[in-house]
Amino acid sequence: MSLLQAGVGTTVIALWLGHAGVRSTDAYVHADMTIEEKALALTAPVTARPGRYRPTDKILAFLDRL
């Protein structure tokens, strides 16, 4: 856990632990709530209202051709 908290990537940790893939290391990421709390602290609350998506004419023309 201390490697994750220090900012070492999960790919590097997986290699050090001899895991076949990064998925084996995912359990450690989900087990550490302090990492999730730090990530949430870096985000700002959304103050703007979500807008409606308006595709460009180019996209609409492409979709019409499908």
Word description of this protein:
This protein has helices at residues 2-5, 10-17, 26-31, 33-41, 57-65. It has 66 residues and is mainly α. It has a domain at 1-42. It starts with a helix and ends with a helix. The model has no long low-confidence stretch (mean pLDDT 81).
Shape from CA axes? elongated
Number of helices: 5
Order of helices and strands: HHHHH
**Radius of gyration based on Cα positions:** 20 Å
Terminal CA distance reads 50 Å
How many beta-strand elements? 0
What is the averaged pLDDT score? 81
Q: How much helix is in the residues?
A: 40-55%
Poorly predicted parts = none
Strand content: under 5%
User: Pairing-aware structural class of the strands and helices?
Assistant: mainly alpha
Main sheet overview: none
